[in-house]
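Protein Record: Sequence and Backbone Structure Tokens
======================================================
Tokens: labelled as protein backbone structure tokens, with as many entries as the chain has residues.
Task: work out the structure tokens from the sequence, keeping to the layout shown below.
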Amino acid sequence: MSDIRRIHTDQAPEAIGPYSQAMVCDGWVFCSGQIPLDPETMEVLDGDVSEQTELVMNNLARVLEAAGARLDTVVKTTIFLADMADFQKVNAVYGRHFGDHRPARATVAVRELPKSVSVEVECVARVA
């Protein structure tokens, strides 16, 4: 049986339900979706979608780091948007964080996200 390890870091928001920030299995990191929560206060960032996406990407990077991975080892992401009209703004922040690294990606509009945020991002990465 594969070794499965639960990831937790105080540098990213606590899980707000019965799940982990990430799990590592056979050299793969499976990150739960990150929403724009301040890791210290656990409050939703009161900002526009660009600011929310910035916090989401920073939180995701911290979870990846705790798992022994980095943004440049991400192979797949999924972006969830409360409003597809925010696509360009989210894409600009996302692109800045990934630079020339271009993981496979899906972007979907959903009816609602936890805590009524505008954006959530999850990913799968390789341990560095």
Observations:
- The radius of gyration is 14 Å.
- Residues 6 and 36 are 21 Å apart (CA to CA).
